[in-house]
Amino acid sequence: MSASRTLLDSAHARSLASRLCLLSLLGLAACGKDPAAPATTAAKPVPARARPAPQPDAPASAAAAPVAAAPAPAAPPPGKGARVVIDISGSVQGFAEKKGWKSVALETVHRTIDEVLSKHNLNLPTERCTVGATLDCGVKLEYAALRQATLYRAETSRLDLALVHPIKSPDANPAEPPPPDNLDPFGITIIVTDGVQASHSAAGAVAPAGPTATVVACAGGADPACVAELLSSRIREGYGVWAIGLRLRFKGTHYAERALDDTHMAKLQAHIAAVSKDPAWYGRTPKVGAKKDAANNTSQYPYEGLKPIVLFVLSRNVNAARQFVGDYAAQMAKELAKPEDVQTVEIAPLGTSRFNFGKIARFDTPEMPMTSKVILDAAKREGKGVAQPIRCTSEGAAYVDIGVQASHTGPAWQDLASETVGVTAVAPILDGRVIKPPVRVGLMAPHAKIDDAATDHLLRTGVNCRLLAAGQHNARYDL
Description:
17% of the residues lie in helices and 29% in strands. The protein is of the alpha+beta class.
């Protein structure tokens, strides 16, 4: 059986780009969607699905065949302290305090970061950086300054600069050591942003399936494909990655980052009208003003309502980072109007699934009266697969049911993640005319994702002995 994760495989830049788009539920970016609307209905809670353990006693014919994870790359020495990177692009101004509008939301975001870092001894030392067109570190910022609109004036947000590996200038002396990495020196890195820039490629475009050179992925700026590739690269190096979404009050300009016409605005107004009738949004209905078109062929409009701020958390110390994310979310849920205004998503490493063969048995049915002419002896483990001895007579034909058990350890997966399983027949006799390709039975379609309510999953194949010589044969299956 083969197993593939939607979000975590050896080359999953496309998956992460897709997930960044799915994180529009946190309001990160417009990925092929109507860019007019700032995700007002976005932050509905995503329930985690716990995976049940397998049945305790496997039958005698069962053969364990766990799917082994790829070995993690060698990691540098553990980092110390924390780096907090603050997006100071102009689109963040709407969350900040300004003349005629009081808000301590951004100050609360950063105070709580420091409190939770200190609680888990992750704060010594703490370095703050700002990121706009450049990444500037070692800046001294008081909490009061973090809530002021005057801080957030950058024309762009180069989040890629906070994630990329710095390289030595080609003009540097060969004896000069390479510049320090942006993440490795720190125990935990937190990037506070209102999202990645919109993609200027085809609507819905994502990164390639395999690892891509940063210069290629980020050619259009720090868009979803670029950030996905950089996060993928860090995950391949052994980093855990989390996203925390916070819905905060906003009053300011929403930048669509592309041209909008009257059709876009009509859709936006219709969306707001629908939201105004949603009980979950009672008293929180957003307001939108008339759009303006800028000289660079993009549109913007005044917006008042809730919008998301997102924290990306990266660390090699997975347990410590999980504790930080959990405690930070719990603390911010107390600070914000509603607990559902806070969400967390673990992008990597997620939990670990294991798959084992369960019972392999003949399925007798009146439709196939010659099933008794097919005898299944006890299955035997062979490497990661199982060999099923089959004794045939010339007229025998029968269905064979293969049980598969699944178990899950570590954090439960979110709805955004899925796993695909299937049984592969590898013995030479398994020609399609002799052994039918395995398919799921019951309510599950072939190769559908595992049903969370079940631990034993049946796949049905069949043996047609009329195409075989009488005697004993081995059907070999791999997980």
